[in-house]
Specification:
The complex is a heterodimer of chains A (about 250) and B (about 500).
Chain A (H helix, E strand, L loop, with lengths): L1 E10 L2 E11 L4 E5 L6 H9 L4 E10 L2 E2 L5 H7 L1 E4 L6 E5 H15 L7 H14 L4 H5 L1 E2 L5 H15 L3 E5 L7 H13 L6 E5 L4 H5 L4 E6 L2 E6 L2 H9 L11
Parallel strand pairs in A: 3-10, 3-11, 6-9, 9-10
Antiparallel strand pairs in A: 1-2, 1-4, 4-5, 7-8, 11-12
Helix pairs in contact in A: 6-7
Chain B lengths: L1 H12 L24 H10 L4 H15 L39 H10 L3 H8 L4 H10 L2 H14 L2 E4 H7 L1 H7 L10 H9 L4 E5 L11 H6 L8 E6 L4 E7 L10 E2 L2 E6 L4 E8 L13 E10 L5 E8 L4 E4 L2 E4 L5 E10 L4 E10 L5 E10 L4 E10 L7 E10 L5 E10 L5 E10 L2 H8 L5 H12 L1 H4 L4 H14 L6
Parallel strand pairs in B: 2-3, 3-6, 4-7, 5-8, 6-8, 7-9, 8-10, 8-11, 9-12, 10-13, 11-13, 12-14, 13-15, 14-16, 15-17, 16-18
Antiparallel strand pairs in B: 1-2
Helix pairs in contact in B: 2-3, 3-10, 5-6, 8-9, 12-13, 13-15
The chains are: A alpha/beta (about 250), B alpha/beta (about 500).
């Protein structure tokens, strides 16, 4: 599904990723952990195609294609989805309108028919229910005045609607209380499938109690410093990130 | 410079010799000679078979106009217009215009397609010869629909016709109200309009009548060839209600560079007039060459107690827009509203806003203005809210929001507030924001293209105003906003 080789990337002229290698096979869930400043969010943004992130070296192959040659829209259409750590507010645009625009943009680009209003409503309501999202919330402007939990559930709802092949979750658990983490994790788990891969980026092991990964990778100074099974997360929970340069992180 | 040059050249292209017999011959003369003088004003009046009082009214306006100066205070730049280089009268010409859609600018056709306008209607809009009749059939399912409209209106007692017809058939109403809101002395362009106005619409809704339909779709057929000096007069008698929609979301093919229209609204006691405009004239090309100069005077008079006038405008076209739909709140308890979306892209210049003149007691007004500037454009909100000393308890709420797309455009807000009555309550809010890269990226990462993303964000920004538009125009207007902002990012 995803193959990253020797990836180097700059933000504002500063190198953040320094030769990152990572392979996520189809159907697997991999966790990316690491101290602040190790490059976790940079990796997420580079994969989604944010313009301020400049790739200077290396390659990213997604389903056999050169991901770096695509712009952000093309990546979304091809099946890459980023659940944002800080979802953006768009005043005046009802969440429902946004969801529908996104779903139909992706469908159109994939050569599928746009969903009719009744069909779309049916699908949204069904998926929203699983995430305990009230339909009233979907009538409010996108993310405006949403609580942290509402924002993150809304991200997962978008993920469910767009049916991506690769889900990148950037610190989806940050700022959530334990009940909210559970709801979000249930939503994510419901989307696990043999055709779909996930990259779960998190600072804390807590989320991984609910979304149990196939592999865990520890990022340090822009590279994968260590990889292992789910037990690696538990080990980190005890030992902390000291040996991965937490103290020196920017 | 290029703008005027273009007019001059275009005028040259029309073979003036063809009309060398001038306006004294009674052949189907198409044009008055170039320039403006008393003879031309008399010619226009005679051509239209107007009564003496109206001819004299025009002449008075013309004499006045000669003493006036073109206003310079607006935040717009354009080369000096030589008013003697223009033509002031041209009857509909059957030989002008493309012969089929194949001859029409493909860019224009692309826009029609995006707006989802039916082919037959495209022909009307593009000015294809002989199209109107066909279009009426195709779009409105035969002329009978138009007749039905007319019958239904007549049954309600609503008069809806061209100003020229009204002058003939309802002279007492025209004489009473024409120029009573925008006097012939008002301003340079309004005075010019009074002297040479070509045609326009006339609406009279009698006492207690609620006009049974939006005067909109019908207008869409009627709108063609109203000319560059349009004059509209709408009167709502006591307790009457009318909603009027001017314009069209599709860009009209237009040979005229200068447009100086006048719109007058009169609301008597307990009457309500809702006037909506969608203006999408040619804005000029990507380099800012050409485009329509839209210098309009629109004013409503809340003459009766508890009357209400509401202006809603969506301005996306024209190279230069100079326009301030205003309300004179004369009647006690009267109310004025102004809802505006003004979008400028490319090299467009917009200087638009409103005036709310509170004269009566307990009058209230509300202004919601959304300016969106992209490209190299300049977008100015200019507004005046004033309370006369007798305007006890006058209230106004103003909200002016500007949205910038890119870093080469400008947004300006120039609010004037004058209160001569201590009990007046005026509130003013203003914001300026930019579409952030993060907002854009968020949309892109969900599969939207840049253009779709900008259109979505802008439509959110203008939502309060969009909701004021008649239902059937909301969807089209949303699309229009997207089209107007094409090429504004990336």
């Amino acid at each position: 599904m995803l193959e990253i080789k020797n990836l180097h990337a700059n933000v504002d002229g500063r190198e953040i990723l320094k030769g990152l290698d990572l392979t996520v096979p189809t159907g697997e869930v991999h966790a990316i952990m690491g101290p602040n400043g190790s490059g976790k969010s940079t990796l997420a943004n580079v994969l989604a195609g944010k313009e301020d992130y400049e790739v200077t070296e290396g390659s990213v192959t997604f389903k056999g294609e050169d991901l770096l040659a695509m712009d952000a829209t093309e990546r979304a259409v091809a099946g890459v989805f980023l659940a944002f750590q800080y979802p953006m507010e768009i005043p005046g645009v009802a969440t429902m309108t946004f969801l529908r625009s996104a779903v139909n943009a992706v469908r159109k680009a994939r050569g599928e028919e746009e969903l009719s209003t009744p069909d779309f409503l049916r699908v949204v309501k069904e998926k929203a229910k699983g995430l305990k999202i009230d339909v009233d919330m979907l009538r409010r402007p996108l993310n405006v005045g949403f609580s942290g939990g509402e924002k993150k559930r809304n991200e997962i709802l978008q993920m469910a609607l767009l049916e991506p092949s690769l889900c990148v979750l950037d610190e989806t658990d940050s700022g959530l209380d334990i009940d909210a983490v559970r709801i979000v994790a249930d939503g994510v788990n419901a989307l696990r499938s043999p055709e779909r891969s996930m990259l779960v980026i998190t600072h804390y092991q807590r989320l991984l109690n609910y979304i149990v990964p196939d592999r865990v990778h520890v990022l340090s100074a822009g590279r994968v410093a260590r990889s292992g099974g789910p037990e690696l997360a538990l080990e980190l929970e005890k030992s902390g990130y000291a040996e991965y340069g937490e103290a020196s992180a920017a | 410079m290029p703008a005027v040059q273009e007019t001059v050249e275009r005028v040259k292209q029309i073979d003036v010799d063809k009309y060398k017999y001038g306006f004294f011959t009674d052949i189907e003369s198409v044009m008055a000679p170039k320039g403006l003088n008393e003879e031309v004003v008399r010619f226009i009046s005679a051509k239209k078979g107007e009564p003496d009082w109206l001819r004299d009214w025009r002449l008075e306006a013309f004499r006045r106009w000669q003493t006036m100066q073109e206003p310079k205070w607006a935040n717009v730049q354009y080369p000096k217009i030589n008013f003697q280089e223009l033509y002031y009268y041209s009857a509909p010409k059957s030989t002008e215009g493309p012969k089929s859609l194949a001859e029409v600018d493909p860019e224009l056709l692309k826009t029609y397609e995006k707006l989802g306008i039916p082919l037959k209607e495209q022909e009307v809009l593009a000015g294809v010869q002989g199209a109107p009749k066909v279009a009426v059939d195709a779009v409105f399912d035969s002329v009978s629909v138009v007749t039905t409209f007319k019958e239904e209106l007549a049954k309600a007692g609503v008069i809806f016709c061209s100003i020229s017809e009204a002058v003939k058939n309802h002279p007492e109403l025209v004489k009473k109200y024409l120029g009573s809101v925008v006097p012939i002395t008002d301003n340079f362009f309004a005075t010019l309009n009074s002297a040479v106005f070509s045609d326009g619409s006339f609406v009279y809704v009698p006492e207690g009548v609620r006009c049974p339909m939006e005067l909109s779709t019908y207008f869409r057929i009627n709108a063609e060839k109203t000319g560059q000096f349009e004059r509209t007069l709408i009167i709502a008698d006591k307790g009457a209600y009318v909603s009027y929609l001017e314009g069209c979301t599709a860009p009209m093919r237009d040979e005229n560079q200068l447009h100086a229209a006048v719109v007058e609204l009169v609301a008597l006691e307990d009457a309500e007039i809702k006037y909506s405009t969608v203006q999408n004239w040619y804005p000029g090309d990507a380099e800012g060459k050409g485009g329509v100069y839209n210098f309009v005077t629109k004013r409503g008079d809340c003459r009766g107690h508890r009357s209400k006038i509401s202006w809603t405008q969506v301005e996306t076209g024209s190279a230069i827009t100079w326009k301030y739909p205003s309300c004179i709140l004369r009647g006690n308890g009267s109310r004025g509203e102004f809802y505006s979306i003004a979008i400028s892209n490319g090299y467009q210049q917009v200087d638009s806003g409103t005036k709310m003149i509170h004269l009566g007691r307990d009058t209230s007004s509300r202004i919601i203005s959304k300016g969106i500037a992209a490209g190299y454009s300049n977008n100015t909100y200019r507004g005046l809210v004033s309370a006369h000393r007798k305007a006890t308890n006058a209230r106004n709420f103003t909200c002016c929001d500007s949205l910038l797309i890119g870093d080469k455009c400008g947004a300006h807000t120039v609010p004037y507030i004058e209160a001569k009555n201590a009990s007046a309550t005026f509130e003013h809010e203003a914001t300026t924001s930019k579409i952030s890269d993060d907002q854009l990226f968020y949309c892109l990462s969900r599969g939207l293209s840049e253009e779709e993303a900008v259109a979505l964000i802008v439509n959110g920004f203008v939502r309060d105003v969009l909701q004021q538009l008649p239902m059937e125009f909301m969807a089209e207007t949303q699309k229009l906003i997207g089209i107007s902002l094409e090429g504004s990012v990336g």
